[in-house]
TrEMBL record:
Keywords: 4Fe-4S, DNA damage, DNA repair, Glycosidase, Hydrolase, Iron, Iron-sulfur, Metal-binding. It comes from the Bacteria. Residues 35-186 form the HhH-GPD domain. This is Adenine DNA glycosylase. Its cofactor is [4Fe-4S] cluster. Coiled coil: none annotated. The keyword Nuclease does not apply. The keyword Iron applies. Binds 1 [4Fe-4S] cluster. InterPro entries: A/G_AdeGlyc_MutY, DNA_glycosylase, HhH-GPD_domain, HhH_base_excis_C, HhH_motif, MIG/MutY, MutY_C, NUDIX_hydrolase-like_dom_sf. It catalyses: Hydrolyzes free adenine bases from 7,8-dihydro-8-oxoguanine:adenine mismatched double-stranded DNA, leaving an apurinic site. The gene is mutY. Adenine glycosylase active on G-A mispairs. MutY also corrects error-prone DNA synthesis past GO lesions which are due to the oxidatively damaged form of guanine: 7,8-dihydro-8-oxoguanine (8-oxo-dGTP). The lineage of its organism: Bacteria, Pseudomonadati, Bacteroidota, Flavobacteriia, Flavobacteriales. It comes from Flavobacterium cheonhonense.
Length: 346
């Protein structure tokens, strides 16, 4: 069986109709690839449509304010992607006159574009014979060829890239790369793939040896950090609140939030009152405090689990740096805070 030919035939019969596949414009391809990193297609698609409507060209994205970009990105997570996206758009627009480089080597020189994204743009937009290797490709190749190399090891990327390069049919890099990624996304899925109805069920080494569930091998486990966030939702007598921007490096950089207390555990009302006496957030007299969510809200990120509570802090008079809710809702927030604001209908 010709693996590459069969894979392309499967793709042409089963591929999803996605907007970034109906174009060879590198701007739209780049935009989709950045959005789909660590993100499912179903989640990323509406964001792609909103972005292309708001920013139909790379010049439109480059000229946008960063807060506008972050607001449109809100809920997609991994916000460094949005900030890098904006910077790359500015580089392409202002240094390259809006034209993306037309080959893999030059694409790599752009800010925020690594080997995977450069290969995707080069092959999808320009049909350059360069392999694209992502999680789907690791899975398909490791199972079909029974590759037992730990994909988290230092030499894995080079090994799988070389194997994928050998399979690239001449003049069909565009089709093959999209085909193998789509096959991994729809057919050769991580858990309980439908091997009985797979085009490779007579030639897949992992299936013949009953090792499908064991491949690919990935030994490194992510260390998860547990953090406790207490957000203070101040409310003055004219219904203004306090908002601050996260300027420190780390999660949610340049997004907005309520004043934050990070502690080693969930706070009782008494403990919070004591901390409010030590931390001078406002000069106004505090009238009372009350908790919005009785149960701790757990927000899971890749490397962190955030235990979040929102507290209402009513104060006398008018906050000197207060913001009205109409203005607040225009700002980009982490999705967990955005959802809280929407749920409470401020």
């Amino acid at each position: 069986m010709n693996f590459s030919k069969s894979l392309i035939q499967w793709y042409l019969q089963n591929k999803r109709d996605l907007p970034w596949r109906n174009t060879i414009d590198p701007y739209f391809i780049w935009l989709s690839e950045i959005m789909l990193q660590q993100t499912r297609v179903a989640q990323g698609l509406p964001y792609f449509l909103r972005f292309t409507e708001a920013f139909p060209t790379v010049f439109d994205l480059a000229k946008a304010d960063e807060e506008q970009v972050l607001k449109l990105w809100q809920g997609l997570g991994y916000y460094s992607r949005a900030r890098n996206l904006h910077k790359t758009a500015q580089q392409v627009a202002f240094e390259f006159n809006g034209k993306f480089p037309a080959n893999y080597a030059e694409l790599l020189k752009l800010k925020g574009i690594g080997e995977y994204t450069a290969a995707a743009i080069a092959s999808f937009a320009y049909n350059e014979s360069v392999p694209v290797v992502d999680g789907n490709v690791y899975r398909v190749l490791s199972r079909y060829f029974e590759v037992e190399t730990d994909i988290a090891s230092s030499g894995a990327k080079k090994e799988f890239t070389q194997l994928a390069a050998e399979l690239l049919p001449a003049g069909e890099a565009n089709l093959f790369n999209q085909a193998i990624m789509e096959f991994g996304a729809l057919q050769c899925v991580p858990k309980n793939p439908d091997c009985a109805n797979c085009i490779f069920n007579n030639s897949c080494a992992a299936l013949q040896k009953k090792k499908v569930a064991q491949l690919p091998i990935k030994s490194k486990k992510v260390k998860v950090r547990t953090r406790f966030f207490t957000y203070l939702v101040f409310e003055d007598e004219v219904n203004n609140t306090l908002i601050q921007k996260r300027t420190q490096k780390g999660i949610w950089h340049n997004l907005y939030e309520f004043p934050l207390l990070e502690t080693d555990n969930d706070l009782s009302p008494e403990a919070l009152s004591d901390l409010l006496l030590k931390h001078t957030y406002v000069e106004n007299k505090i009238l009372d405090i009350s908790r919005f969510n009785e149960a701790v809200m757990v927000h899971k990120l890749t490397h962190q689990h955030l235990n979040i509570c929102f507290w209402k802090v009513r104060v006398a008079g008018k906050l000197s740096e207060g913001t009205n809710w109409k203005s607040v809702k225009k700002l980009p927030f982490p999705i967990v805070i955005h959802n809280f604001i929407e749920a409470e209908r401020f």
